[in-house]
Specification:
By secondary structure, the protein is of the alpha+beta class. It is built from four helices and six strands.
Length: 206
């Protein structure tokens, strides 16, 4: 009888010994419940951060759009102003470009100019230091209510180069050359008078 009791005690101790670590592990591994108020607070902060980020991106995009719009408007304004200036000059019968074009036609077809410079005479404006041909040098003036233009440009043929000088005056019927002459750049610096109307057009101006 004593032997049966002792055996029962031994079996009970083994069962308790084998189950104790499992019970302790279950209590440790079991996750703690998250507080509902804390979870709601985290979600609220996350939504607030996202909302601020969205507002910042929208403001940034609006600023960028405004900047690009301003740049486009300025570009359109400058282009329109340049187009208006060119259009106005082309329409005007007495403008530097109109007078220059007429002078080029007279010089490049003049027999003595071709004899001195050679064939294929070309005309151009002032040259920069890098050799680029720039605008035509001209000076506008007005005397006794009448407008005038003085223009200088260059000529180049197969043999020589030259410089042309002219003075044009606005008249009741349009405009006319007062004088137009070409001077050879090299020796003997021959001067070729293409047109001379100083005795008729604007005789009071030299």
């Amino acid at each position: 009888m004593m032997l049966v009791v002792n055996l029962h005690k031994s079996v009970c101790q083994r069962c308790l010994g084998s189950q104790l670590p499992s019970c302790l592990w279950t209590s440790v591994a079991k996750p703690r419940p998250v507080s509902t108020s804390r979870a709601l607070g985290d979600k609220s902060v996350s939504k607030h951060v996202r909302s601020d980020a969205g507002k910042f991106n929208k403001a940034k995009e609006a600023t960028r759009t405004t900047y690009y719009t301003a740049v486009v408007l300025v570009g359109v304004g400058v282009t329109g102003l340049m187009a208006y200036s060119i259009f106005k000059e082309l329409l005007s019968s007495f403008s530097p470009q109109t007078v220059y074009t007429a002078a080029v036609e007279k010089c490049t077809t003049h027999p003595r100019v071709i004899d001195f410079l050679g064939d294929s005479v070309k005309c151009y404006g002032e040259e920069s230091r890098r050799g680029r041909r720039q605008h035509i040098s001209h000076m506008s003036y007005e005397i006794e209510g009448t407008k005038g233009l003085r223009i200088k440009f260059h000529l180049k043929g197969q043999r020589r180069t030259a410089t042309a000088h002219l003075d044009a005056r606005e008249t009741s019927s349009g405009w006319e050359f007062r004088y137009l002459y070409v001077q050879i750049d090299t020796y003997p610096h021959e001067v070729i008078v293409v047109e001379d109307n100083r005795e008729v057009v604007g005789a009071s101006v030299v």
